[in-house]
Design goal:
Elements (H helix, E strand, L loop, with lengths): L12 H11 L4 H17 L4 H18 L6 H20 L11 H8 L3 H12 L5 H24 L5 H32 L7 H27 L3 H11 L23 H6 L1 H11 L1 H16 L18 H18 L14 H9 L3 H13 L1 H27 L13 H19 L31 H4 L36 H4 L8
Helix pairs in contact: 1-2, 2-3, 3-4, 3-7, 4-5, 4-6, 4-7, 8-9, 8-10, 9-12, 10-13, 12-13, 13-14, 13-15, 14-16, 15-16, 16-17
Protein name: rRNA-processing protein las1
GO molecular function, one term: endonuclease activity
InterPro entries: Las1
Length: 516
Amino acid sequence: MSKFPKVVPWASTEEYMAAADSLYSPDLSERKRGVAIVKAWRVRGRLPVAIEATASLAEMCVADQEHRHGVSNNQLQHMYSMALIRFVNSIVDLEQKGVYAQSVAVLASRIGMPAWFVELRHAGTHEQIPSLATLRAACSQALLWLRDYYWSKQVRRLPTDTMAQVRDVFAQFVAACDQRQAAIAAVAAAAASRRSASKAGDVNGMSLAEAAFDSATAALSLLVGRLHADAVRLYVVPVLIESGFLVPSEKRLRAKFPDCVLPAALAETWSAPFLVFTSSWGETLFYEELLAGMVSALTPDSSEFGVFETGDGGLSTSHAATLVAWIRWILESHYVSEGTARSPAISIEDMLEGCLRNPSYYSRAVLRVVSDVDPVLKRNLKPFVEFMGKALAALVADEAKGAPAATKRLVTVSQSALQEEEALMQKRLDQLFGSKANHNGSMDVDSTAAMAPFATASTPESRPAAAQSRPAGGRWSYVSETAWVQCPIGARCDGSVPVLEWPAWIDDAPLHTTPA
């Protein structure tokens, strides 16, 4: 490691993350502010190419929204194309380190860049420029890719001084609360034993405890006042969900499955800090970030072969139960159902998405908590909760039988079940079209009139001979096993290409018919 510190254009971690939030803000003026900050950084020194690319793409989005009616579509296409070409080239060139140059596609796949970005770059450079709608979508996807592959990963590499300071202040507050509780318990014990509570020892102990508590609360307020709102996600929430803070170090003081009821003493301890947090950062921001952090800790990223695990290997059961209890407490105290007259104080969409994307024992517990709090969502979440329960039961059964992890199958479909499903689909098709399939498996679908607008796009002369010999009537048919051959995606087995384009009149057709 170099002994010399690395010089960066930003003054602090908070400024760095504030610029990132501005660049990705849905507010146009805030996004312009983020672009201006990056321009100021560019004057101070050299910037990472990812920041340059993010600012260029964000500036292009701003220009599109501000001058949409004053710039032609052709000009916007060229501007978007240049921004996307620069984005791909600048990111991919960083991986060009060998003696022999490698293709852009190979380098892009190495860093996880979607292949269609490379294809879009090639089209914009050597072929016809893509449509404006495609370029706008590509710009949005490129910004999301930069956020996932650069900005979010930089958070883990940022200096930990601020987090250490947050941890120290929170630890001081917890210690002061414990001291205060011990002093209160001593006074209560003295009263129960009918001793005088005015003795010097009791008074002195209570005074010291109150002074320590006031000092810790003041230090907490001072720290919160100096932190940017981004610090909630970066420092405050990660420290709060550690053991020793929202989750007590002693397991006997934690919540337990399956009830997940938060101890009243724990809620009372953190009521004052929560008031400080919400007064400084707002109730919505703080509680939504806290919920997101808790769900992230409870629901590890699942993969194709590793779903339905019990949870994070480093998270104990009592720790997880306490986090679920905190989620219940937050929702019961600050969440308003969509079915009520008032608008919800906090949104739980991201929390639900995290649970549904990463099914586990703990995510199922969170969904059950949401179902208890919100009767409207309970009906929608019931199938997911039941499916997770059955899948987890099957997983436990496989583990009890000693099945290897690599051969576990939570859902198995037999050949007979597939045949029954196919027969059911055939029956529904017969009911839908009013006629039954013939013995060859072809379905008598009278679609001649429906396909009339498409007939002009393909003439008999342009079709292969096999296509011209197809029975008329517009019926679809199953291909027999002997006649089936490999063919490109989108083509029929006889080599013909069906006409799949919508007729022009559909673009101008009204969505709903207006009564006369």
